[in-house]
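Internal tracking record. Fields below are filled automatically when a chain is submitted to the structure queue. Please do not edit lines marked as system-generated. If the sequence contains nonstandard residues, flag them in the REMARKS field before resubmitting.
Queue: standard
Priority: normal
Entity type: single polypeptide chain
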Amino acid sequence: MAARVAGAFEHGGVLIAEAGTGTGKTLAYLVPAVLSGRRVLVSTGTRTLQDQIFYKDIPALARALGLELRAAYMKGRSNYLCRHRYDRLQEARAALGEDEQRWLDTIAEWLPDTDTGDRAELTEMPDSFGFWTELTATSEQCLGRECPQFADCFITRMREHADDSDVIVVNHHLLCADASVRQGDFGAVIPACDLAVIDEAHQLEDVVTQYFGLSFSTHRLDEFVRDALQSVAFIPPEEGRLAVAMQHAVGDVERTGRRLFDRARVEATRERGGDRTTLTPESAARLGDEGEAMREELDRLGAAIRAIEPVPEDLKAILTRAAAMRDDLRVLLAADDPAFVHFLEVRGRGIALRAAPIDVAALVSERIVGDRAATVLTSATLTVAGSFDYVQGRLGLTTATTVRLPSEFDFRTQALLYLPPDMPDPRSPGFNTAASGVIAELLARSRGRAFVLFTSYVAMRDVYEQVAPHVPWPLLLQGTAPRPALLRDFRNTPGAVLFATASFWQGVDVAGEALSCVIIDRLPFASPGDPLVAARIAAIEGAGGHAFHEYQVPLATLALLQGMGRLIRSRADRGVLAVLDPRLTRMAYGRRFLASFPPVPVTRDLEVVGRMFLR
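SYSTEM-GENERATED OUTPUT FOLLOWS
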């Protein structure tokens, strides 16, 4: 693999490399990267891999090669303290609660000692502590070069350090966020890199979809209103009348926005689209009056700000954000761009109007790969039945060269695939009950030590309630604790069993006997009721293709392989993968799934499963 990456770096172009678990992907691309003599960008899909590369692999490689490597670790803006917003909160600390004031004092003690401003250094701060968002600046909130703290800004320092580095390690979210706002070098955070490696490339389509769309949400409105009201304090005292006018204008924006979101929630309920509801031009028209009123109030707020002479920098930022929201609302409520799917997304009390690109192929090839001299994309799961056609088509990289490098693990002896006989159709009412019985049988033989992965929360909770009274092993359920806490408890609890959904299918590494069995309830087909999935199906069918075979089956195959990838993480690992969905053997397309698996023995006999755990 290192030789193929080195060839790509030397001769240019795009290389797509599938390298099975245990291949040593990171060292295989880091060695030619550091020997290339050019700056290399490495993007990963997970923070775990980003940490491993920066803190473990690069230092080990530097020692092995006897080189001094200059490396930079770049995260998204939300990880770094904004000195300007921190100063503003200190000025307004009397209005804050006791917890917030205590954290401001903690940060005041930390600031002189930190070189990065990274919240990861504040190890006692809870992940869910909402106050941190008020101490950071999004790209919308950032004042850029006009900020009084620009020279000392942690983002500025991070960029300067990256400018002086040989290897820059980022994640896909920062990569795509940066590409979406970049106009030449303007707006960019990541320095220009001649060479790039995109690891965990199977995630790229989803992340590009997220960052190259539009969104107007209750969260965005709340954040805007809060910042706008705080910015009133920067209006000179002699302009008190204008300050009052701006406060009223902000209040009008908030009230009008609430009416728009209330109407959107009614629309989502009416369409009964679940968490996501497609927004057609007809349904968007029913939000038209509230949307137009919102745009008018944003115009009035802009006029109130421009009446202040001179406009303070903090208020200029509010003015820019108001104009951006106005423009986004116009596009979101037109819902007539055939390149985008428009939908409403409801999450608890929050609601958002969104537009997402249906096809990201051009975005990936032009904005992510772009005109770099060479780009390498790699992952353990990029082929379907041995072919790269699916991923090349989805990412617009049909002319890329490809290489498939098998895992060094001996799946014939380390793993077993169990397909239970006589399972009912997964769409039938009795499937969860039948699955519960099989799961209990499997857990008895594996002595716990399992992930039980589901394609829906409803099925997860139903099966959990049926299994829990019948097994003696400690059961953990997604949603009862934060993800990191669940993983920690799983690793530290002998015989633990974790019931979870999609977020645990990938990016989770539990080596050794603690995870000896992975049970998957259904083939992970994306719901055709999801607006984005439905739009992509329609686009393929409209172009004369067969969406089920060209899109739905390959997408589900790669997701299933990611689930299997949780099981065998080292040469010492052994385990059983159980897929309870009978379509794997009853339907013709099941052969494509099975042909994509590593060379693992298959059994339908629970006694064979039991013997696997006794070896």
